[in-house]
């Protein structure tokens, strides 16, 4: 049985990787800054020594890094997305046995792209916000190590959606608003003119696990997306149909998320990951939203 050390196991993507791994009979050692019962406490920003000790103790076939910081102060973003990755890379390059690293990156690293043209892994990254800048720095640390000794791949995940979507995402926030009982108030959001590549989080977890277990070296960066661009306005309309809610969702003039503000359109080119891993998305957007709504209405 293969064994993986899953860092960031309590997060949105990490939780689904655990479920997928269990179904595939892959042993997972879960680690996080605030672990659940039975998990290991591990803060990547604390230094490479603690990470190296954990790796030596677990002796995994692969390390999956789903940890990261999506918001906060510049210092918090740098600590979580740059310093932590640097420490992990340092620990892995000094490990006594080779271990593959699967690092979860972000489409925010690309920033603004040419409208209507799916973005490939060779596109020059131009992140617009500090989140994208720090995620790109983490990717470049992994890339540099992979050019010398480290067996590593960065999966640039576009916009994960589905059960467990946090309230910091558009879908997660809307579901939380629409399920509030005893109110018929309008729901107000920022502009919905942008288009995003929305990929089910369970498909993302499958890609992560497949990359961890695949034989041979992989391309250093691979996109993980649906391969489709969806207008956020269409997303909200579909969510209203799925939920049956009659509450209006109104657009305000307020700016959107700092992570994606200024990016009008993004769609992943996913041909490379198909060639490298045989992976392709399997879940349509309606199913993602229906399962998100069902989980929220009937938690657990």
From TrEMBL:
Q: Which residues form the NAD-dependent epimerase/dehydratase domain?
A: 4-225
Q: Which Gene3D superfamilies match?
A: NAD(P)-binding Rossmann-like Domain, UDP-galactose 4-epimerase, domain 1
The organism named in the record is Actinomadura graeca
Which protein is depicted?
Answer: NAD-dependent epimerase/dehydratase family protein
Task: Enumerate the SUPFAM superfamilies for this protein.
Answer: NAD(P)-binding Rossmann-fold domains
């Amino acid at each position: 049985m293969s064994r993986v050390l899953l860092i960031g196991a309590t997060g949105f993507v990490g939780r689904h990787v655990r479920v997928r791994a269990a179904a595939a009979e892959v042993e997972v050692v879960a680690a996080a800054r605030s672990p659940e019962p039975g998990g290991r406490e591990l803060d990547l920003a604390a230094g490479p020594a603690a990470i190296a000790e954990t790796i030596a103790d677990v002796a995994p076939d692969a390390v999956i890094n789903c940890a990261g910081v999506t918001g906060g102060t510049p210092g918090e973003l740098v600590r979580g997305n740059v310093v932590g990755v640097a420490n992990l890379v340092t620990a892995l390059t000094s490990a006594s046995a080779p271990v593959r690293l699967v690092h979860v990156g972000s489409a925010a690293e690309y920033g603004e792209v040419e409208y209507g043209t799916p973005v490939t892994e060779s596109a020059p990254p131009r992140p617009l916000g500090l989140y994208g800048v720090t995620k790109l720095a983490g990717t470049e640390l992994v890339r540099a190590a992979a050019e010398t000794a480290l067996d590593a791949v960065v999966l640039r995940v576009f916009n994960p959606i589905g059960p467990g979507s946090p309230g910091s995402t558009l879908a997660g926030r809307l579901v939380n608003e629409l399920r509030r009982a005893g109110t018929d108030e309008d729901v107000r959001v920022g502009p919905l003119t942008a288009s995003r590549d929305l990929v089910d989080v369970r498909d993302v977890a499958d890609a992560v696990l497949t990359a961890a277990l695949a034989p041979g070296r992989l391309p250093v960066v691979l996109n993980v997306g649906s391969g489709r661009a969806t207008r956020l306005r269409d997303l909200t309309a579909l969510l209203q149909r799925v939920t049956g809610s009659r509450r209006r969702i109104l657009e305000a003039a307020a700016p959107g998320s700092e992570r994606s503000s200024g990016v009008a359109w993004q769609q992943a080119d996913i041909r490379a990951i198909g060639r490298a891993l045989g992976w392709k998305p399997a879940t349509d957007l309606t199913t993602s939203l229906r399962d998100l709504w069902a989980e929220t209405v009937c938690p657990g």
